[in-house]
Design a protein that fits this description.
The complex is a heterodimer. Chain A is α/β, with parallel strands linked by helices. Chain A is built from 16 helices and 14 strands. Classes of the chains: A alpha/beta, B mainly alpha.
């Protein structure tokens, strides 16, 4: 065949490319339409297991016209991080309804799908509040989506116990309190706290005799890792640790082997991933285990939190040290309620919570119940009033935490780090526990809830 | 100053990455060159190879090599079925061909998402261990992938250039009507071509997931990458696709190693655009 005869004309090519574009639009539109047809569901069934809270007070009439309590969950429902939030909220609501509801009223779950798209997220948020009449919202995932949803939250004045780790969200509460005070972070600590836990990780490795004087960082090309680095650098300076190389990678990046070889050539002992957006921590772990270099892989990798991570890497994750974002690994529940939640969730769905966001959603529902009941007990006329809910949520501060699946407290308004309404970080609250994959399970290897000693990678 | 080690890393790692790119892009350009089918399901065949192989290993406990062979054949058969049922009825309409193959790709992506979820899945290793060349450590799996890629490309060249079927494919690609006049069954030739193309895609998917991981989003990512390479090489030119695969692969690894990972895709795509500005028909294309 001659080359000339194999060529397509430019006109043909443009025509074909245009058709491809049309097909993309048709496909995406069909997918969106199909997804948007899902209806919210009413929770009516009961769940096995013991409800972790005492029965609710007898029925009263906090607001004469109110006959039910509506809780909205909004998240990307095609992802584990989204599904786990819906499942966990559903479980909490079933338990609460079994125990008599909130102030005697039944609780109804409504949910929306962000589809990881800010426009969709905003529309869904608005629908849940204005059409479904949600009294309170929980959910999230992805900082950009959260930024977008904070606007309808502020406009509609709806309490929102949220997921997503960007420092930018509490900074908004700090800077425009009256507008954004309805926002609280329930799922995990401020992303900047990864720096403090990474610093603790370096201390641990130093104590165990590893050379952490020079580290090799592989991190997302994203603003969230810039925030982590800004908090991490002073901690590194304090410890005399030098960043030998700081490599930024984009979404879907997979060529980690040349980087690991380079780190090894530089005499590095610890490679520090700070990854979430890249989404390829499994590839990193696999290539790390393939090369079998004398390198520790120790950092924060969102993929490593996934329960299926070990299996997905074919066991290559053995010895991978990571931070347990959200404050829980299933082998080391920090509270009795957490242990009970994991049992009930497993009984209901056939597996433990598949992502840490489940703990946040479960806590959010119970926390909302708690503050409404506190307000009612104090004789507040409308305990569901958003400003009242905010006022009572703020009562759970570092001096007055509440034990749910984690020990929850919020930084008060005016925080010096601009962490207003953020989860309080620390051993006695929620923190990103230093954890490790060992024999297919996640264990905490340092701190108050440590349940295993650190092991070395199998080839060391 | 670039050290010898760095050069070795670029050469060794660049060659293996390029090998996979060459396999997937040569299959994509082959079916287009022969039948003018712009097969947007090619990326789906790429990932199907990986996922079907993983299924046989995980669910049926088959040997990874046997699973790979079965998977490759199944994807090839599936491609013929797709040709007969959805491509052939619209083959004369190039726009519809694109739409139905893209729809097929999106459908397969949804099936994988529903079955395995969105996270990466590792293909059980065909080979383990590392080899040190100079001071550079390289996993055996990379070298194996490079060897398989080179052997497959050679096999493809022999198939097209030296076998009777290959010569028929050549004839049909040059003049379909002439081929019919001399008694060749062009539909059969197209079906064989799409089979070969799908086999190349499935094989490259298996090799890719050996080195990286199977991931449903690679269906569209790989398609875009293959498309870029094929345009760079000259649409329809197998030789052009193979050479441009190595250009892109080496640029990608060189940029990752010398400048930084964040720039690798940007610079690779920028160079492709520059080359196309200088030579709009691609490296091995000819003016209309």
């Amino acid at each position: 065949m001659t080359e000339s005869e194999k060529q397509v004309s430019r006109r043909d090519f443009l025509k074909l490319a245009a058709a491809a574009g049309v097909a993309f639009v048709v496909g995406a539109g069909a997918g969106y339409y199909a997804g948007s047809q899902k209806k919210p569901e009413v929770i009516t069934k009961t769940v096995p297991g013991t409800p972790p809270t005492s029965p609710t007070p007898p029925p009263t009439s906090p607001t004469p016209t109110k006959s039910e309590v509506v809780i909205g969950v909004i998240a990307p429902m095609a992802t584990k991080q989204g599904m786990v939030q819906r499942n966990a909220a559903e479980l909490a609501i079933r338990e609460i309804n079994e125990a008599g509801g909130v102030l005697g009223m039944p609780v109804r779950l409504v949910w929306g799908d962000t589809k990881l798209n800010p426009d969709v997220a905003v529309s869904e948020f608005r629908r849940l509040v204005t059409v479904e009449k949600a009294d309170f919202m929980t959910g999230g995932f992805s900082s950009g989506i959260m930024n977008a949803m904070m606007e309808p939250m502020a406009e509609l004045k709806i309490p929102f116990l949220a997921d997503a780790s960007s420092p930018g969200h509490p900074a908004k509460v700090h800077e425009e309190y009256d507008k954004y005070k309805y926002w609280f972070r329930i799922t995990q600590n401020n992303g900047a706290t990864f720096a403090w836990d990474l610093a603790d990780m370096f201390d641990m490795l130093d104590e165990k005799g590893y050379d952490v004087s020079h580290i090799y960082i592989i991190r997302d090309e994203h603003i969230w890792t810039d925030a982590v680095m800004s908090y991490l650098q002073p901690e590194l300076d304090k410890r005399g640790i030098t960043v030998a190389k700081d490599v930024k990678v984009g979404r879907g990046y997979t060529e980690y082997e040349p980087l690991l070889v380079e780190a090894n050539d530089m005499g590095i002992q610890v490679v520090v991933p700070i990854l979430a957006i890249a989404g390829t921590g499994d590839v990193l772990a696999k290539q790390w285990a393939n090369l079998k270099l004398r390198l520790l892989l120790a950092g924060h990798d969102l993929a490593a939190l996934d329960l299926g991570f070990y299996e997905a890497t074919g066991g290559a994750a053995e010895g991978y040290i990571f931070l347990a974002d959200g404050g829980v690994v299933n082998t080391a529940p920090p509270t009795d309620m957490c242990k009970q939640f994991i049992q009930n969730y497993t009984a209901q769905y056939g597996h433990p919570p598949e992502a840490h966001q489940g703990f946040g959603a479960y806590d959010a529902v119970y926390l909302f119940k708690k503050v409404v009941e506190m307000a009612h007990d104090d004789g507040v006329e409308n305990p569901f009033d958003p400003d009242v809910v905010v006022q009572y949520l703020e009562k759970f501060n570092p001096d007055n935490p509440i034990n749910l699946t984690r020990t929850i407290a919020f930084y008060p308004p005016g925080d010096k780090n601009k962490f207003d309404h953020d989860l309080v970080w620390g051993d006695n609250y929620v923190r990103n526990w230093i954890s490790q994959w060992q024999n297919g399970k996640q264990y905490v290897i340092r701190g108050k809830i440590k349940n295993a000693d650190m092991i070395e990678p199998p080839w060391f | 100053m670039v050290s010898i080690n760095t050069v070795m890393i670029i050469l060794l790692y660049g060659a293996t990455f390029s090998g996979i790119l060459a396999l997937i892009s040569s299959g994509f350009t082959l079916i287009f060159g022969v039948s003018r089918i712009l097969n947007f399901a090619h990326g789906a065949f790429f990932m199907m190879g990986a996922y079907i192989g993983i299924y046989f290993v995980q669910q049926l406990n088959l040997d990874p090599i046997l699973s790979s062979l079965i998977s490759i054949i199944l994807v090839g058969i599936f491609s013929i079925a797709a040709y007969i049922t959805i491509i052939y009825p619209v083959i004369k309409n190039e726009v519809m061909t694109i739409i139905v193959t893209l729809a097929l790709a999106l459908l397969i992506e949804q099936v994988i998402l529903l079955t395995y979820g969105e996270f990466g899945l590792s293909y059980p290793r065909l080979v383990a261990g590392t080899l040190t060349i100079g001071d550079v450590v390289i996993p055996m799996v990379r070298l194996t992938i490079l060897a398989i890629s080179i052997l497959t490309i050679l096999g493809l060249w022999i198939f097209i250039d030296r076998t009777r079927i290959g010569k028929e494919i050549n004839a049909a690609s040059q003049d379909p009507e002439g081929a019919i006049l001399i008694g060749l069954n062009v539909n059969k030739i197209y079906a064989i071509t799409i089979f070969v193309s799908a086999v190349l895609a499935a094989l490259s998917g298996i090799l890719y997931s050996q080195m990286y991981a199977a991931n449903p989003f690679q269906i569209l990512n790989s398609l875009i990458l293959a498309f870029s390479i094929v345009i760079l090489g000259g649409l329809g030119s197998v030789k052009g696709s193979i050479i441009s695969s190595f250009i892109v692969g080496f640029i990608y690894i060189a940029v990752t190693t010398l400048i930084g990972a964040r720039w690798s895709e940007f610079i690779a795509l920028a160079i492709i655009i520059v080359i196309l500005i200088v030579k709009p028909t691609g490296l091995f294309g000819v003016e209309e």
